[in-house]
Write a structure and sequence with these properties.
CATH topology: Metallo-beta-lactamase, Chain A
Order of helices and strands: EEEEEEHEHHEHEEEEEHEH
CATH superfamily: Ribonuclease Z/Hydroxyacylglutathione hydrolase-like
Strand content: 15-25%
Strand order of the largest sheet: 3-4-5-6-7-8-9
CATH class: Alpha Beta
Shape: globular
Bound molecules: zinc ion
Structural class: alpha/beta
Number of strands: 14
Oligomer: single chain
Length: 286
């Protein structure tokens, strides 16, 4: 064996590369993948007189039109930006007339395209402090997912508190903190019209805990207490029409709205409560 002796100062032994055992290359980077329906572009679907779903078959991105410009809530996956901008134009919203971007929570399947949308439109991004931090880090160091679902980081322009309102033209939205799925999870409520009647719309974040450690989680010790308070909040929302970031969670089928079996906020919270209870019980039994 040929050994190269280092200088006396470093004292290291280096084995000749020619003699070393073959070493396999380091692994390739692997981007995360999602169900294809999350990436399936759809034509704009009118939900109410001034509300359009412009995202993909199974990820919600809502466009709210007013006389003073438009508001976008959620942007879907990072690769959705061009599709959203095209759908905005299709319903008569020029990029520079998008004024506010709101968000349900800062995971890559809802906040992934917001850096690109913000750059293309100049709209101002609104979120609470928890979600602002997660989005500034591009989803890195997530409590439950670590660095598994990264996306282009984006800076929040206006940080809001629980119950704070965002207004544009004749439209006012109220933000509600509903921590659980993420510490910064939010619901947005506003009034619209549909079929000549006033309708209270609630866009309520995911209430799921996919693979989450619910018992003794050192990164989120009060996760169950947060969920419990959130279920109460959601049950109390004004909610003639419920929409969710993942449409199936509230019974929506955007590919054929006549097939939708929509549920209200109370049932949405009750279902989630039951699922979380069972999930927690299973973890306590382990
Ligand atoms: Zn999520």
């Amino acid at each position: 064996m040929s050994v190269i002796r280092c200088s006396a100062v470093c004292g290291l032994l280096l084995v000749s590369a020619a003699q070393a055992e073959p070493v396999t290359p380091l692994p390739q980077l692997e981007a995360y993948t999602v169900p294809e329906a999350w990436l399936q572009p759809m034509a704009p679907l009118q939900i109410a007189d001034n509300v359009w779903q412009i995202g993909t078959d199974e990820l919600t991105s809502l466009l709210l039109k007013t006389r003073e410009g438009a508001i976008l809530i959620d942007g879907g996956m990072p690769q959705s930006a061009e599709h959203l901008l095209a759908n905005m134009k299709a319903v008569g919203v020029a990029p520079q007339t998008l004024k506010w971007i709101l968000v349900s929570h800062g995971h890559g399947d809802h906040a992934g395209s917001l850096a690109a949308i913000k750059q293309a439109t100049g709209a101002r991004l609104v979120a609470n402090a928890e979600t602002a931090m997660l989005m500034a880090d591009g989803g890195a160091n997530d409590i439950h997912f670590g660095d598994d679902i990264l996306y282009p980081p984006v800076r929040v322009d206006r940080q809001i508190q629980d119950g704070e309102q965002v207004s544009l033209g004749n439209l006012t939205l109220t933000g509600h903190f509903i921590p659980g799925h993420t510490p910064g999870s939010m619901a947005w409520t506003w009034q619209s019209t549909r079929d000549g009647e006033t309708v209270d719309i609630a866009y309520v974040d995911s209430l799921t805990a996919p693979g989450y450690q619910l018992v003794d989680n050192p990164r989120y010790p009060h996760i169950v207490e947060d969920f419990t308070a959130t279920f109460k909040t959601v049950k109390g929302l004004s909610c003639d029409l419920l929409l969710t970031p993942h449409p199936g969670a509230s019974g929506w089928d955007y590919t054929d709205a006549t097939q939708s079996t929509r549920i209200d906020c109370v049932d949405y919270a009750k279902k989630a409560e039951q699922t979380l209870r069972e999930q927690r019980k299973a973890q306590q039994a382990d």
